Amino acid sequence: MKENKYDDNVFFEKYSQMDRSKKGLDGAGEWHVLKQMLPDFRGKRILDLGCGFGWHCEYAIKNGAASAVGIDISEKMLAEAHAKRSSDAISYICLPIEDIAFPPSSFDVVISSLAFHYIQSFEDICKKVYDSLSPGSNFVFSVEHPVFTAYGTEDWYYDDRGNILHWPVDRYFNEGRRSTIFLGETVQKYHKTLTTYVNGLIRTGFEITGLIEPEPSEEMLHTVSGMTDELRRPMMLLVSARKR
């Protein structure tokens, strides 16, 4: 099922006010870790799946990539990406991630940021990414952590005074669709286990080179209200892999 909440006017306006939308990569809480997992972009052909405002494509070109292609289902997101585009070496395609079909060895690096929890089959995407990469190339992505997506509400349990008690985890092994509340709006996502992410890569033929559950940076812990609660459970999962 290919849903596109990001072209909803109300939701898009709320998303546009987030730090990661206004400040770019520096406003993304996981960026201080994710950027350390990225390969050398110099001379490489980059594919960004779920590119949003195009921040990663811009970063790739500024760090020496030969070209960058961004894929996103949202026309509104891509309109912002086009407005920010700094190089003719960047191109954007409005397309669901599930529908990509590139010739073999079209890219040297495939990246994706917080997009795969919106699609049903991770293994199908792994196969398409594997085929589109040249031998020895890299696949780096982030997703919402399975502990974060399992229960579905994506919110804490609180006491009667509004104090955080704990993070609910339930139906962990029952993969599939979850109705969540994000920015005050109902959004459909797909919960997958850690096993599904890891074995999906292995079965496809990837060699896993890194797996990190990122913690907030020291700066964010001291400057962003409520950020210390992010140390109580993992919110994201970052993975790097290499095509054999």
Commentary on this structure:
- The chain has 244 residues and is α/β, with parallel strands linked by helices.
- It has a single domain, classed as Rossmann fold (3-Layer(aba) Sandwich).
- It has helices at residues 9-16, 19-22, 31-37, 55-62, 75-84, 122-132, 146-149, 194-204, 218-223; strands spanning 45-49, 67-72, 90-94, 107-113, 133-144, 157-158, 164-166, 176-182, 185-191, 206-212, 236-243.
- The chain has a seven-stranded mixed sheet with strand order 3-2-1-4-5-11-10, with helices on both faces.
- Helix 5 (75-84) links the parallel strand 2 (67-72) and strand 3.
- The chain is globular.
Shape: globular
| Proportion in helices | 25-40%
| Overall pLDDT confidence | 95
What's the CATH H-level homologous superfamily?
Vaccinia Virus protein VP39
Using DSSP, what is the number of strands?
A: 11
Strand content: 25-35%
Q: Determine and state the CATH class.
A: Alpha Beta
Largest sheet: number of strands, sense, barrel closure? 7 strands, mixed
- Number of domain units: 1
The helix/strand class is alpha/beta
CATH topology: Rossmann fold
> What is the string of helix and strand elements?
HHHEHEHEEHEHEEEEHEHE
Radius of gyration: 18 Å
Uncertain stretches: none
Q: How many individual helices?
A: 9
